[in-house]
Each structure stands twice: as C-alpha cells, then as structure tokens.
Design brief:
Number of domains: 2
Number of strands: 8
Shape: globular
Structural class: alpha/beta
Strand order of the largest sheet: 1-2-4-3-5-6-7-8
Largest sheet: 8 strands, mixed
Number of helices: 14
CATH architecture of the largest domain: 3-Layer(aba) Sandwich
Order of helices and strands: HHEEEHEHEHEHHHHHHEHEHH
Strand content: 15-25%
Length: 330
C-alpha cells in the first residue's frame, strides 16, 4: 500500500470536519441575521398622525401658536406675573404637570413644547443649535407680548434659559436652572453616535424600541419604580410624531451646540435659583456648585433621592421652593 492511500482516510476526516465547521459557522451567522431582522421588524413603528396625538396628548387649555413659521404647542394658564417653563431634551411640556396647580393661582404659567419635541414637531429647516432655541424663545415672548418674565428651565431647557438670561438680561426677572448642562465634559452617548452615523440614523427614523425608552427613563429617574408603562407609552408616542425622530438624529449631528458657559453665566443679572437632583446620573451634582460659584446672586438647592427631572420626581418640594424664591421668601 502506498503512502498516499494510507493518508486518504485522514484527509477525508479533516475535510468533513472542515465542511462541518464551516456549516455550523454559517448557521450561526444566519441565526444572528434572522434574529436581527426579527428585532428590527418588531420594533419598527410608523409615524402617528398629528391629529391623533393632539387628541390624546393636548389639553383643553392647549394653544397652537405660530412662532417664526413653527406651530408651537403651548399651555397658558393662570393670572399674574408670567413664568415661562422650558422642558429637557426627549421630554415635553407634560413634565410640568405636577407644578401647575400650585403656580396657576398666582402666576401666568406658559409651558411650550420646544421645536423637535412633543406636539410642536420639527424645525422647518432642521436647525437644532442652542442659538436657534434662544431665538425661538425670544420670538415666543414677543408673540405673547412678554416684556419681562420669570424663566425656568430643566436640562436642555436650562441651557436655553441661562444663555437667554445672559444675552437678554432686560427680559428676565428671575431665573431657575434645574440640572443644567454647561460645565460637564462633552461626551456623546452610543445612542447619539448611532444617530449621527449615516444610514444607521435613517434606520432610527423607523425603528423605535420601547425598551430603549424605558432604559433612558430609568436613567433619568432616581427611583425606577416611577417609570410606569403609561409614562413609557407617552414618550414613545410623542417620539412618533412626524418629524420628531429625524429631529433627534439632526440634533445628534450638531457638534457645536453649546456656547462657552463660563463666559456667559457671569453676565446673568437676574436673581437665580439653581436646583439639582442629588442622584442625577446624566449630569453630576458637582456641576451645581460650579453654576452657584459663577452665576452672580444665585442660591442652590440639592434634593436627595431625586434624579435629572426634579419637577417630576419631587414636584411638591421643588415647586414650593420655586414659589418661595419668586416671592422673596428664601
């Protein structure tokens, strides 16, 4: 028997093992592909009609006001000195519900869905810089004939508020900043990186998993038990307002989205209250002290067991302190 014949069974065995191994590898790839395809299909959602969303998520006192070509969803309730409330990114004017009964007896309260959020919907030119939002707020104030007003902002709304107060000090009576961006290191989350990636961002205009919204809200709140099914559903539905998902990816692509905080906040002349949740997982409470040190005439309140949206997680105590501040009872 020659040498080649003796090695034949061993060669056949290796070949069979190689073919089998290649088949198993291909099988796993197909399984992974099918699982991904199933997940994408399961989490793909069409836009909801604006009329349906208005029916479900507007209020009897809702108003839709033309502000520089944007139809802005607002609530204007109560009588007295005007107080403008600005919500955070990925939120809406619903965030202030826990404050309104307490404020409406003494103040004219103005809540607005900022461009790209809630029922207001996207900016017509896809512009989402901090400067656009300041201009939007100024146009809204002019539309409502507000010469001077108290200004409250949370998260993104606080960034808009401190920039507005620094650039237009003659228009702001008192300023309340809640968990304000500005001093934290500029970092982009993996979600923002995906949103800024071509092709991937187009998938995000259709694929919107509720599970990711729940994860986001559990990071916002200190107490995960407060993240109810109805809360997740509202955030999910408002994200499906036509144009809001594209607005999210458009905002993620804006790199120079914030003015230099240290240069501007020193220009604020309005008495300022700085509010922070001690359990804020998005922006560390250590930055509250930086605002307190840099903003002239400022007071500071930090709330235990409270996350990034104190007005939702601790409404009674925060609105009580806000009223005391506005009424010079601090």
């Amino acid at each position: 028997m020659d040498l080649e014949s003796s090695n034949q069974p061993e060669k056949e065995k290796k070949q069979k093992w190689s073919v089998g191994r290649w088949s198993i590898s291909r099988l796993f790839r197909w399984i992974a592909f099918l699982v991904l395809a199933w997940w994408l299909i399961k989490n793909a959602h069409a836009d909801l009609s604006v009329n349906k969303l208005i029916t479900q998520y507007s209020y009897q006192d809702s108003r839709f006001i033309d502000v520089s070509g944007i139809t802005a969803h607002c609530r204007i309730i109560g009588k007295g000195a005007p107080v403008v409330l600005l919500h955070d990114a990925q939120s809406s004017l619903h965030t202030w519900t826990g404050w309104l009964d307490s404020l409406r007896g003494d103040y004219q309260v103005i809540c607005v869905d900022l461009p790209g959020f809630g029922l207001t919907g996207p900016h017509p030119r896809g512009s989402y810089s901090a400067f656009m939002y300041v201009e939007f707020l100024d146009s809204l104030a002019q539309k409502l004939q507000l010469n001077r007003f108290h200004l409250v902002g949370n998260g993104l709304g606080a960034q808009i508020a401190w920039q507005f107060a620094a650039e237009k000090p003659q228009k702001v009576n008192k300023l309340i900043l809640m968990n304000a961006p500005g001093y934290e290191k500029k970092e982009h989350s993996w979600v923002n990186l995906l949103a800024a990636t071509p092709v991937v961002n187009r998938i995000m205009w259709t694929v919107t998993p509720k599970s990711l919204i729940r994860i986001f809200l559990e990071e916002i709140y200190a107490d995960d038990a407060m993240v109810s099914k109805s809360l997740v559903q509202r955030h999910h539905d408002l994200l499906l307002r036509p144009g809001n998902r594209k607005a999210f990816t458009d905002r993620a692509s804006v790199r120079d989205n914030r003015p230099p905080v240290s240069e501007l906040v020193k220009k604020i002349t309005a008495p300022t209250l700085i509010i922070w949740g001690a359990e804020d997982a998005l922006i560390s409470p250590q930055h509250a002290y930086e605002f307190h040190q840099q903003v002239p005439r400022s007071d500071l309140r930090i709330y235990p067991n409270t996350g990034h949206w104190p007005q939702e997680e601790n409404p009674s105590q925060t609105v009580s302190d806000v009223k005391a501040f506005l009424e010079d009872r601090f």
